[in-house]
């Protein structure tokens, strides 16, 4: 028996409207949440059209002209805007009858391409019991016939399996929101052997180590430690017949272990470093979980991933901004100040779920609104954008050469400062390098 997809009723209307504009096909993403029993689809988002597509409409329509890179890039951008618990569940295609025959092959290829692109950016690994099926939804623009199949993205040789596509009103009316603020203090050494002080690569390596600490942390839900296999809402009153969006909010505290357990073996490493990166501050995190008897472990896992993703995404956005403004070939940074992106939340129409985005300080509300329309095909009112964090800046100090020295190794005396400060949940990241003598050693526990 195949999987069942419960789909927000408004998505049916959205897909119907898209089908009237098909020339000759349109693709998009399905956004929602997996669970052991069924999957929930709360948004369908068309792929943004490219300007040159209108000029390439000469000749017979062919699915071979699908821009796979454009679609996977869109999926990566959308995934940044999803809070914990939400992910890209699959892809859809609305096509004319003459393209229906090749539709499933095209969808299968897209599903695996999208998953490959998204998995490269993750600092966490899926669990063994996690659902790995992704949906391929095909709709005929003429007959409006809907065909839903799934593919196991963990199996490259996976074949199509049938799935049920069922519409339901007020799908997220009883979902639970979890929120927390996590204090961050991460020290990342920059090895002397690292070429050109590769900040992005070293930062990702440091975040990988930190993500393991988050995975091992203790989570207090409303002040209590709960068994992972118990129901999240156990002991809470349930309001039957409620079809209006209403969020049950759970406040979560994250307790990170300060060191290794007494029984664990600890080793020390000495490395020659040219500097270090310090990420300090606090991150604002949020996750959503379905209301169908969710387990504690499902909720905690969703929040863990939002904690890891939001810090990783901020660093990724920062480096992208530096490359965009300074160019990929720039090796020596002068002292500069950059405004870090603030995390903001926007409600989904008719839902208790809010989507996320990151805003640089100099971005106007209109730019954010344009991005929501382009990436999520959703108009947003300026008053509906809830900024969760205050503006902060990045201070980058250049690496300066010290006077020449004839002693062994001839290491360069350098100071590198990258300060990412955040208040009320925005990450504070700082890169500080101090080399007071010829050699700089970094001592830390694995």
TrEMBL record:
Instruction: Report the locations given in the UniProt record.
Output: Membrane
Q: Kindly list the biological process annotations in GO that this record carries.
A: intracellular protein localization
What sections of the protein cross the membrane?
424-444
Q: Which InterPro entries has this protein been placed in?
A: ODR-4-like
Q: Which domain of life is it from?
A: Eukaryota
Give the function comment from the record: May play a role in the trafficking of a subset of G-protein coupled receptors.
Q: What is this protein called?
A: Protein odr-4 homolog
What organism is this sequence from?
Answer: Leiothrix lutea
Phylogenetic placement of the source organism: Eukaryota, Metazoa, Chordata, Craniata, Vertebrata
């Amino acid at each position: 028996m195949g999987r069942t997809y419960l789909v927000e009723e408004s998505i049916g209307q959205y897909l119907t409207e898209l089908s009237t504009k098909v020339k000759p096909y349109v693709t998009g993403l399905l956004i929602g949440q997996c669970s052991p029993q069924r999957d929930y689809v709360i948004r369908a988002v068309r792929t943004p059209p490219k300007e040159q597509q209108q000029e390439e409409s000469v000749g017979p329509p062919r699915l071979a002209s699908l821009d796979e890179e454009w679609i996977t890039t869109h999926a990566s951008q959308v995934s940044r805007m999803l809070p914990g618990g939400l992910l890209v569940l699959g892809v859809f295609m609305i096509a004319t009858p003459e393209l229906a025959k090749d539709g499933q092959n095209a969808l299968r290829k897209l599903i695996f391409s999208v998953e490959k692109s998204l998995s490269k950016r993750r600092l966490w690994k899926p669990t063994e019991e996690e659902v790995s099926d992704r949906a391929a939804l095909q709709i005929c623009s003429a007959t409006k016939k809907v065909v839903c199949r799934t593919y196991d993205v963990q199996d490259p040789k996976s074949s199509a399996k049938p799935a049920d596509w069922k519409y339901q009103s007020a799908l997220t009316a009883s979902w639970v929101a979890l929120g927390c603020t996590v204090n961050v203090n991460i020290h990342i050494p920059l090895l002397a052997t690292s070429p050109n002080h590769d900040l992005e690569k070293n930062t990702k390596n440091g975040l990988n180590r930190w993500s393991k600490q988050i995975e091992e942390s203790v989570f207090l839900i409303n002040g209590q430690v709960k068994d992972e296999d118990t129901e999240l809402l156990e002991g809470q009153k349930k309001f039957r017949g409620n079809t209006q969006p209403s969020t049950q909010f759970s406040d979560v505290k994250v307790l990170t272990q300060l060191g290794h357990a007494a029984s664990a073996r600890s080793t020390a490493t000495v490395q020659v470093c040219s500097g270090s990166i310090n990420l300090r501050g606090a991150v604002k995190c949020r996750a959503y979980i379905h209301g169908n008897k969710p387990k504690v472990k499902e909720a905690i896992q969703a929040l863990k991933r939002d904690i890891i993703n939001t810090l990783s995404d901020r660093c990724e956005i920062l480096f992208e901004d530096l490359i965009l403004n300074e160019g990929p070939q720039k090796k020596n940074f002068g002292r500069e100040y950059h405004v870090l992106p603030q995390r903001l939340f926007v409600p989904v129409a008719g839902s208790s779920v809010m989507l996320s985005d990151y805003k640089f300080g100099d971005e106007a509300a209109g730019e954010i609104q344009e991005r929501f329309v382009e990436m999520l095909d959703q108009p947003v009112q300026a008053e509906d954008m809830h900024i969760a964090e205050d503006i902060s800046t990045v201070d980058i100090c250049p690496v300066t050469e010290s006077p020449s020295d004839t002693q062994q190794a001839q290491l360069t005396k350098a100071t590198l400062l990258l300060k990412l400060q955040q208040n009320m949940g925005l990450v504070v990241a700082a890169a500080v390098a101090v080399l007071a003598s010829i050699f700089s050693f970094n001592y830390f526990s694995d």
